[in-house]
Amino acid sequence: MVEVGRKYVFDFDSTLTRVEALDVLAEITLKDKSNKNEIINEIQKITNLGIDGDISFTESLERRIKLLNAHKDDLEPLVSELRQKISKSIESNKDFFQNYSEDIYVISCGFKEFIDPIVEEYDIPSSRVYANTFKFDAEGFIIGFDEANVLASHNGKIECLRSLKLEGEVQVIGDGYSDYVMREAGIADKFFAYTENVSREKATRKADHVTPNLDEFLFVNDLPRKISYPKNRIKILLLENVHQAAFENLSNEGFTVELVKSSLSEEELIEKIKGVHVLGIRSKTQVTKKVLDAADKLLVVGAFCIGTTQIDLDNCRRKGVVVFNAPYSNTRSVVELAIGQIIMLMRSVFPRSMEIHQGQWNKTAANSREVRGKNLGIVGYGNIGKQLSVLAEAIGMRVYYYDVADQLALGNAIRCNSLEDLLNVSDVVTLHIDDNKANNNFIGEREINQMKDGAMLINLARGFVVDIPALVNGLKSGKLGGAAIDVYPEEPRSNGDFITELQGIPNVILTPHVGGSTEEAQRDIADFVPNKIMDYINSGNTVDAVNFPNIRLPKQNNAHRFLHIHKNVPGIMAKINEVLARYEMNITGQYLSTDNEVGYVISDLDKEYNKEVIKALKKIENTIKFRVLY
Description:
Elements: E1 6-10, H1 21-29, H2 36-51, H3 57-68, H4 75-83, H5 88-92, H6 94-99, E2 104-111, H7 112-120, E3 129-132, E4 134-136, E5 142-145, H8 156-164, E6 169-174, H9 177-184, E7 190-194, H10 201-204, E8 209-211, H11 214-220, E9 235-238, H12 244-252, E10 256-259, H13 266-272, E11 278-281, H14 289-294, E12 300-303, H15 313-318, E13 322-324, H16 331-346, H17 349-357, E14 375-379, H18 383-394, E15 398-402, E16 414-415, H19 419-425, E17 428-431, H20 445-450, E18 455-459, H21 468-476, E19 480-485, E20 508-510, H22 519-539, E21 560-567, H23 572-582, E22 587-594, E23 598-605, H24 612-618, E24 623-629
């Protein structure tokens, strides 16, 4: 055994399992009682008082057993329930318990009747389980516990551990203050406060190390583990009030996540980005070269939106930082708003609404037209443009579209050979083009003059694609009959005052960049982007990355995975394989994808490895980033 001088003492309840076993037993024995919840709450309260040392453990145990009214026959279903409630990281690191079973002890104030069958499956024999035992009456009801057992007394864990006379370094892993006392008494060398299931301030304050999961404990001790790097050490920063579900998805996966409601300036982000592995933003935060230069650990940027112009994609690529966005999640929301705006503009709904607000009644059909039979011109026939095309046809509009790329027409949509052709024929023009910088002022004075007299313009794309002064002139001169603008050349980083030349112009709908901001869309984005982030962090997959070679990787099966990002120059693959051969590594799978600037090599290996191989791989010339997954 590698660590022959070290012994590991585990608590059971809320450490090896996610629950307190007596709470689960209460659920079983009280299931038909009308006051079940009241009794369970009282049991939990007594449990916590005992764990925190606020009442003696003997008193805690006596009071809980009286409330339980449990029978011997209840223990079998209890064990079955506990088997389903093993702590997640304990279960995933079962190999550790089996390989180090001779050095592992369980000292618990719980009961052997339910602890033994659980830990036996982890190769911990009953002889190394120290716990209480129940007393039963003639009919099999639990009436008490063995008072002579040292663990039935206050701070009994101290005497129990002392009596074992363990040699070498003794480490205690548990969730409660009652576990810490063994360290306080000087008979344990270290106390790890285990917080995967519950965090008790009294224990964490005293701990030598707070371990959110077993992976962290094994990492600190440099012991074999299921994953190479504990997820709690991966820091994720989410800005701009990203949906709470994103925070929950990433936190539940075990990552350390910080949520900030607003965007940050470049200077603020430069300071904040240090030590961050994953950055999540929306459209306002600018990820510049200076920010990337300060990002000493950054692996991924997640854009919780469609656009990525706020991110320096080229410098991200050169630094081995993968960028994901959400190209599909909010398309329906944008399309529905476009349909609504088309109808409201054509019917002059906003002028009539403002008149009513101002106390005027003006019932008129002037400038109020049906959309049926009118021509809709869609500029940009991508995901949003195509969905809009289908819905617009469904309400009776004739659809024309223009796109610089060849796009298959849906339904009866007619493709225009030029933007001018589309502008000449359309009663309503709606913009859905991308954030390419070449699209700056895509619609200006010239294009507005090419539109039909009285036509409407809708911009749900990017703020810079419309020349705002030209639009203002077109509206005030009567050339255009109305406009709906959701995006602006310059937008504030947070909610507050905002000024635009378009304010106060009749039949102009102004919205604060909310095209994709529906509860459904934000929830979908909060699932989509974190899943992409987690897939890359956990397995190396780069499918749908916007700036990086795309690779869909098979699931790892008992293999180490080496991820090597490098400049795309000749000979790198040969050098990687030369290093692997030198250290006698057996490759079970290898995958390569490149673009003009970077290459991405993934090697799956089926054996333990000399850690010098990692140093050698990192030293290969033109290496950008390297990490290990297992």
